[in-house]
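User: I'm putting together notes for a lab meeting next week and I want to include a structural view of one of the chains we've been expressing. I don't have a solved structure, so I'd like a prediction I can at least talk through. The sequence is below, exactly as it appears in our construct file.
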Amino acid sequence: MNFIWQILLFVLLTEADHFRGGTISWKPISNNITVGQPISIMITQTYSWTLSLVGCNNSMIAAQSPSVNTGTKVGSGISLFCNDSCSTAGGYIGNEVPITGPCIDFSSSLDLTVSQRSDIVNLTANSTFTATFSTGGGWQILALGSSAGWSISNRIDLRARSDNGLINTSPVATCISYISVPVGIPQTIQIPVLDADNDFIRCRFANGSSECVNTCPPASLPVGTTLSSSCLLTITGITAGDYYLVAIQVEDYMTNTSIIPLSSVPLQFLIRVYANQNCTLKPLLIADTNNNVCQGVQVGVSFTITWTVINRCGDGRIINDIATVSFPILLKSTLVQNITNTSLWTTKMTWTPTANQVGSQVFCAVANDNATIQSDQYCISFFVGLNSAPLCPGVTVSPTTIVTTMQTSISLAADTSQQTTQISTAVTYTSSAMTIISTSSSIRSSTVKIGEKVDWPVILGLSLLTLLLALCCLSLCCYYFL
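Assistant: Thanks for the context. Below is the predicted structure for the 482-residue chain, given as structure tokens.
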């Protein structure tokens, strides 16, 4: 009998680590209401899976076919079903959309597949209900909470907004799954969110059987983990090798004092804890598009991001890849090591938005090295326009009026026992009438041998000098424009 139970447990465990979370969002095809006409909305589901169990490759991404194959694993063949307020689901019951879609990203280093599908459904006006992807089993084995089952839910509300009479659009949020954190060291993770209506956004931990079932915070997370309403997660990993599930609901509100959300969007992802290394420096990931900013882009016009990864731990470390969670179709060039400075690795990623992608899109990336250490997550929000590159929600100054460019270069000594860092920052502000200011600063640190005592007062002084220069640039910009 014990042998039989061991076999059953083995089957459960091998079938119970293919799902890594995801998000569900929706938007109306037109936010105007026509009396007597159905309202068409696009529901977008993005899910993360274990690559070795749910395959993906470049050919599948380029063709956007076939959908990822979950085989006979838990969750296979399930649709996004109505879970609450189904009497006002407006025709969704009987027209439920499938879960699995084509893969859009994969990472061998993270053993990660990302799938995404978007479906248009026609619903009656004033429909309001909860759509859920829920099943038993399937999570990566978790250190806290239960791996037996998951639930991820989105609240859809097609009633006219009281402030403008239009149909709401839900926020969009995303995150790499998993995010690696060092054991015993507090980490902060900013959850990237974009709302097309420029509503007030708040984050909270998921709760209840519909939103997170057996993996609800706080029981699923280490003691002391917090999530601010501004979507900043603070967490400290307890034991190396542990995995935790973060289950969040991102909600949009009409005003900053509103108590009833317009919609509720799920975001679930894993945190992995790794042991401290001899070199504790993470890879540094930088791009020619700023981190945590919004970029307007146009349908049919290609947008390219150039990435640089800096290995700060010497010759023993190799950058394996840059993992992404994005959207169809992101084309990636090969990650190439710089011949002259072997600490630098570069690649380009190109995306041409389609008409289906009009509105909010959020993209995140992390660099991974051969010690399984990740860079900090680097996220960019995009706002897609049909006929032009629009202003992002809440932005009032055209990007063609003020252009800000920042260039950062870091050089490392060839001797792996030493590290010399040079940071050069150039900030240029231009307007249609004149160039306001062009400044540059260069700071070179002293060489520090590994194991040698670091002169922290000098480092602090240099940091404050850099901050002062940046504030001067900002003050001059404000002086000319305000």
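A couple of points you could mention at the meeting. The chain has four helices and 30 strands. The radius of gyration is 24 Å.

User: Perfect, that's what I needed.
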